[in-house]
Each structure stands twice: as structure tokens, then as C-alpha cells.
Amino acid sequence: MTLIDYSLYLVTDRKLLPPGKDYFESLEQSLRGGVTIVQIREKDTDTAEFLDIALRSKDLCDRYKVPLIVNDRLDIALAVQADGLHVGQRDMPVSVARKLLPANTIIGVSCNNLQEIEKAIQDGADYVGIGAVWATTTKDLDKPVIGVRGVGEMLQRLDGTSIKAVAIGGIKSQNLLRTLHGSVSPNNHALDGVAVVSEIMGSLIPEQAAARLSELISSFKRSGCIHKALSVSSDYSVTTVIDGVVDLLNCVRERSPLIHQITNNVVIAQSANATIALGASPIMATTVQEMEDLAKIHGALLVNIGTLVPTAYEGMMAAGTFANARRKPVVFDPVGVGASEFRKKAVGGLLNTWQSSVIKGNAAELAALAGSNEVQSKGVDSVGSGFKDPVSFVRNVARKERKHSISSSCCVVVLSGKIDYISDGTNVAVLENGHELLSKMTGSGCISGSCIASYCAAAMSKAQMAEEDQGKMVIGDMFLGAIGGILALTISAELAAVRDDVKGPGTFFPALIDELSLLSSRIIRERARIQIL
Ligand SMILES: Cc1ncc(COP(=O)(O)OP(=O)(O)O)c(N)n1
Ligand SMILES: Cc1nc(C(=O)O)sc1CCOP(=O)(O)O
């Protein structure tokens, strides 16, 4: 049997053609743009017309050596000698279709949950169409949107089988990389392709639309992300890390990246002031309508759910999605995630929608995220003495998060506390700077998110895009960015705390802002207390 390339799977829908656009012209242009497999999907067409369209489409696809699949209608598939048939859960069962179709006919089936995947395996499907991965307006969905983490669970069930998998539903060039990176099983089982309807069929220039998608898929494959899932550099030493952080300090000052922050009401002004003091530039915008424009110009996004309300949630969803589409760092602070079911659900939704570059939390927050009972929360704070083995814990959470993404640059996890632990899943940095007064003011943790975002923006801006980086979600060293942000805050806190004008928490904050603005390479080199494990 010839090998089928499922990379860019066009599913047709003539209703979506722009006014005046001819269907066959659109199909040919899509084929020229790089579509690798085509499904003819005619929901309301008479048999005679469907047959005619399928015959002519088959001719066209044959000329481009691209396989043609027929949606739902086995009779049409037989009549045009299609390469395959796609069936839904309420159509003819795969096992029956298999008996009726010639040997070697490809049979695909739609799946929305693990039971349907199980059945597809039993029935001997060649591929599954997993959807809807995102919301879509192309079809009325009668089953839940799955999200990339849901797709990952289904791919896990396909481990060890030869069944191929494509995701479908709401896939656009904007979320394509996120879809490919995020849809991965813990064993690194990735999608074989993506199925797209409106992005190509609705385009006036389908050749360009298909080529854009095809290029992103190729760059994802070229970047070798699939094979590098857990391999991160372990060439860090204390010296290289400090040199790197000093470089980032200077870069923040020189380039003053715009840091878009959707943060909580308690700390908006403090976070903005800290960002300015570091040398970056804050924008504290929350309205969904401006998220796309901001993602074009910001250097990094910070999302902090401290005082979450539904309108802000909408903004967070959109901001992260657009930041991912622009490959900007996303720093996520799941404040108080263990405190309520509402927060847990919200965090699940956000993480299923976009990819964080850095997740920062205190012990209770990360315990809740990792499903551990070792540390309990009291509102937004942790109770007790923390983890017995924080180094292993943070490394494991980073590994677990990385398993939700194929990207070799995601995801760094910061466990904040008296001692801060930062891991990329391989390396762990242990940082012992800081001062007790930080815990006597509100929002020092939230401010550290602003510092991390500023340094991650610098890390991204310094990175040179190499050929193999083009398929990554974000480029630049996010591990260094996270370390740099934490060191900037904690070292400045040490200096602020011992100033003569500081009498307690009230006078500490203004002094902290001063020290953030005065921080120098020399101070970092002299004061950083860091181990790399
Ligand atoms: C590749 C792929 N995946 C899923 C579907 C959806 O098929 P189905 O469930 O039969 O729904 P309709 O397409 O018939 O509306 C698909 N067509 N292709
Ligand atoms: C045909 C189809 N099937 C889906 C499923 O979930 O099974 S979603 C879908 C439509 C996908 O269209 P677009 O790429 O325009 O979002």
C-alpha cells in the first residue's frame, strides 16, 4: 500500500467558497499550494451532482498525485474509485465499509472521545479524524470541543497501533503550531496531520492559504521537535547562567520590550512600576478586542489569574492564543489555582488553549496543578513547610508540562518561595536570594511574573531564528529568562531591605522599585546565590 501523506488534509465545503469563486479552480489552487490529501464533503447535494463533482475532483487529484477520500457516501467512493472513505459515528460502520470496499481502500472515522478511538481500533480504521480540536463555525458541533490536551490523550490510546491521526476543527495558520505542538501523547505520539476546511475553502487565493499552512507544517517537522521532546541543553553552569542573566539585564534596558500583562486588580500598579524600573515597558490591557493587535507588538505576555472574572478570562484566552500565533513568550501565574473549582477549571481551559513558556507558582499552586496533596493552599498562599524534595518536584512538573508540548523550548516551571527552584525538565536552578520583607507586602509573587516576562522578552529578542527553530512555539532561552527575572527581584529586595530609609513593609516597596532600577551587572555577579543541579 502506498504511503499516505496526511500532513495537510483538505476537507471541501463548497458553501464556503468566496462569491464567484469556482470550486474546481479553488481545488486546483489548493493542490498547487501543497494540500497532501483531499476529502470531498457534500452534505446537501443530490447523488448525480455529488458523483459528477467527485469524478472531476478525482481527475484533478490524480493529476497532482494526491489521494481523494469521499465523505460519508460509500456508493460514490466505489463509483469514482476513490482512494478512501471517511465516515462519522452515525454513518456506515468501518467494519462494514471494509467488507464492501476494494482492498487497500483507506477508511477514516471521526472520533471525539476515547471510546470512539477504542472502537476505531477494534474496527480496523486506517486513520481517525479527531475533533473538534478548537471551536468552529463551519459545522454545528454536537459534541464537546476537545482542546489539544484532549487530543493528546486520544493519541496515547493509539500508541502501538498503525492508525494515523489528523486533528480537525477550527485549525488556522494562527493556531496551527499550537495544535501540532500541543497535540501530543506523553509518549511523544504526535499528529500525522491536520484537516482544514474554511481556512482554505474560504480563501480567495487558496494556493496561498494552503502554502502558508504547508510551510508551517514543514517547519514544525524540520525543527525536529518530535525527536527532541525532552532533550534540553544541560550545558548550563553557574558562570554561563550568570553571564546570560547579565546579558538579559542589559538587553531589557537597551530594547525596553513591551510587556503585556493581564494581571490581578491588587497589583496592577505595582507590577507596572516594577516593569518600568527594570527598563521594560508595561501595558496592562484586558479587553479581548485589542489582544490581536497587542500580540503583534509586545515582547512577552504575562497572564495572572489572581482576581479572575469572566471578561478577563476571555481576554486571557485570546491574548495567549495570539501570543502563541506570534511565537511570543507567555508567562503564566495560576494564582490560587487550588483555592476553588472555578480557578481549577479556568486554568485547565487556558492551558488547553495556549502554550505557556513559563509557569510560575508557589508550592500550593504547583501542587494543585500537578495533582499532588503534599502542599495545601490557604487562598492564594501555601500552608506548611513545602515539598520534601522540591528539586525533584519542580523537575517533574516541568517534565509533565513538557509532555503537553513537543516544543523543545517549553515549558519552564518556577517554584517560588523562600528558595526559588526553576526547571526546564532537565536542569534545576536553585536561587537563594531574597528577603523576608518580600513576603510582608502584597503581590511580590505577582511582580516576579512581570520580571520573568521582561527577561523572557529579552531572551526572545536576543535569539537568532535558525532554520531548525522555525517550527518552534517560541525561540530564546526561557530557562535563563525565568532565572533572570527572579534574580532581578530577589537581589533588589535584599538591597532595598537594608537601606536606611526602609523602616518596614510600607517603605520597602518604593525602595524595591528604586533598587530594581539601579540593578547592575556588577551587583548581579556579586550577589547571585545560585546552584545549577
Ligand atoms: C478528517 C475528518 N475528520 C472528521 C470529519 C467529520 O466527519 P463526520 O463526523 O462524518 O461529520 P461530517 O463531515 O459528515 O459533517 C471529517 N469529515 N473529516
Ligand atoms: C467537518 C468537520 N468535522 C469536525 C469534527 O469535529 O468532526 S469539525 C469540522 C469542520 C472543520 O472546519 P474548519 O476547518 O473550517 O473549522
Short description:
With 533 residues, the chain is an alpha/beta fold. It has 20 helices and 19 strands.
What do you see in this structure?
This protein is an alpha/beta fold and 533 residues long. It folds into two domains: 8-222, TIM Barrel (Alpha-Beta Barrel), CATH 3.20.20; 238-532, Ribokinase (UDP-N-acetylmuramoyl-L-alanine:D-glutamate ligase, 3-Layer(aba) Sandwich), CATH 3.40.1190. Helix content is 45%, strand content 15%. The chain has 20 helices and 19 strands. It has helices at residues 23-33, 47-63, 74-79, 94-100, 114-123, 147-158, 173-182, 198-201, 206-222, 238-255, 268-278, 291-297, 310-325, 341-353, 363-370, 390-402, 444-462, 478-497, 505-518, 521-527, and strands at 8-11, 37-40, 68-71, 84-87, 106-111, 127-131, 164-168, 193-196, 258-262, 281-283, 300-304, 330-333, 358-361, 376-378, 381-383, 412-415, 420-423, 428-431, 530-532. Strands 10-9-11-12-13-16-17-18-19 form a nine-stranded mixed sheet, with helices on both faces. It has an eight-stranded parallel β-barrel with strand order 1-2-3-4-5-6-7-8, surrounded by six helices. A two-stranded antiparallel ribbon has the order 14-15. α5 links the parallel β5 (106-111) and β6 (127-131). α1 packs parallel to α9 (206-222), α5 (114-123) packs parallel to α6 (147-158) and α13 packs parallel to α14 (341-353). The longest helix has 20 residues, at 478-497. The chain is elongated. The chain binds the ligand Cc1ncc(COP(=O)(O)OP(=O)(O)O)c(N)n1 and ligand 3NM.
